[in-house]
Amino acid sequence: MMPSRPLRLAAATLLAAAGALVTAPAHAAGVDQVCAGTEVTTFDPPLTLTARPTTVTVSGIYTTCTNPDAVTATYAETFTLTASCLVLFDSGSAFRTFTWGGTTAPSDFRYNVTSSAVAGQVVVVNTGVITAGGFAPAGAEQVITLVTPNVLQCLAGGVASVTGPTTLTVHGA
After folding, report:
1. What is the CA angle 80-74-68, rounded to 5?
2. What integer pLDDT is reported at residue 18 of this predicted model?
3. How far is CA 132 from CA 35, 107, 108, 139, in A?
């Protein structure tokens, strides 16, 4: 006899909770660095419903990183693209430098950008390679989650900035 749906759901929830209690060590095999922090993205001019050339300034801070030689990090980047409240980011390739708090040299990160709308959020995934500096050569992935701009703000003067959590994973050799 098959358990009832509520019972199966409860069992699945318990299994998921138990799995969440098991965490990987800070330096799991193949991972040199994992960081968590916040990104602020500003738009000039502010985003409206009309697509137009926009200067985008990104600044991020990782307040928690797992590598003892690089315990925090910051980054900043400015670029221009055609954007609106309906289309925040586009796909493409870019470059940024992570500056580490600790003894590790800054890392040059060359990456490809993809973005998608998921449940009222814009999820930006930067996948690429640390080409020079600390952790080089290594693959890396940065994920940024930003709230989709409020349509009312887009109509009334525009959206000047969005903020959201970001993670960075650097994969060792």
Report:
1. 150
2. 31
3. 19, 6, 5, 12
Burial group, residue 94, by CB count within 10 angstroms (0-12, 13-18, 19+): middle
Query: Which of 108, 113, 112 shows the shortest CA–CA distance to 135?
Result: 108
Cα angle for residues 119, 33, 173 (degrees, 5° grid): 110
Question: Buried b vs exposed e over 55-76: b needs ≥16 C-beta within 10 Å?
Answer: ebebebbbeebbbeebbebbbe
Q: Which helix (H) or strand (E) holds 36?
A: strand 31-47
pTM attached to this predicted model: 0.79
Higher-pLDDT residue of 70, 27: 70
Half-sphere exposure of 129 (CA within 13 A, CB side): 5
Which residues neighbour 118 within 8 Å (Cβ) at sequence distance 6 or greater? none
H or E segment at 10?
A: helix 5-21
Residue 13, beta-bridge partner list: none
